[in-house]
Design a protein that fits this description.
CATH topology: Lipocalin
Number of helices: 1
Keywords: Signal
CATH architecture: Beta Barrel
CATH class: Mainly Beta
Pfam families: NlpE
Number of domains: 1
Strand content: 35-45%
Number of strands: 9
Helix content: under 10%
Organism: Akkermansia glycaniphila
Strand order of the largest sheet: 4-3-2-1-9-8-7-6-5
Structural class: mainly beta
Radius of gyration: 15 Å
Protein name: Nlpe n-terminal domain
InterPro entries: Cu-R_lipoprotein_NlpE
Largest sheet: 9 strands, antiparallel
Distance between the termini: 27 Å
């Protein structure tokens, strides 16, 4: 399972990211919780056509991540915990047993950031975005 988990969450090579630095201060979420909800997308994988990712952000600052390798007979990788805010209501990190991941909220999208906390640039950048699922969309 460890080998599978490491293949799932490969991030792009340095130099593919934007120049926006990540703030070092950790803050709590603001009173508005429009960022709370479910975000879905397919991110690149070195081990197949991609990883179906569902990241649910709770208004209480919790998260649940479900990542499944597409076209593989592998069980989904599921982790949960608390969001650590880097920039109130905008940038945060999550921790799981294998790694730390950073994300940036922007409207109805959630950008997967590189190891330096920067957005991925270039054509590949479009593949590192999760989109918010509309409430009441019929998903069960």
């Amino acid at each position: 399972m460890l080998a599978c988990a490491s293949a799932i969450f490969l991030l792009p090579i340095a130099g593919q990211a934007s120049d926006a630095p990540v703030s070092a201060s950790v803050e709590e979420p603001n009173a508005g919780t429009s960022w709370a909800g479910e975000y879905k997308g397919v991110i690149p994988s070195a081990d197949g056509p991609g990883v179906q990712m569902i990241l649910t952000l709770g208004a209480d600052g919790s998260f649940k991540k479900v990542a499944t390798l597409i076209e593989k007979e592998a069980l989904p990788y599921v982790t949960d915990g608390k969001i650590e805010w880097i920039e109130k209501g905008k940038r945060f990190r999550i921790h799981d047993p294998y790694r730390e991941e950073m994300y940036e909220l922007d409207g109805g999208s959630l950008y997967v950031l590189d190891a330096e906390g920067k957005r991925v640039k270039g054509k590949i950048g479009a593949y590192y975005v999760l989109h918010k699922v509309a409430e009441g969309s019929g998903r069960k």
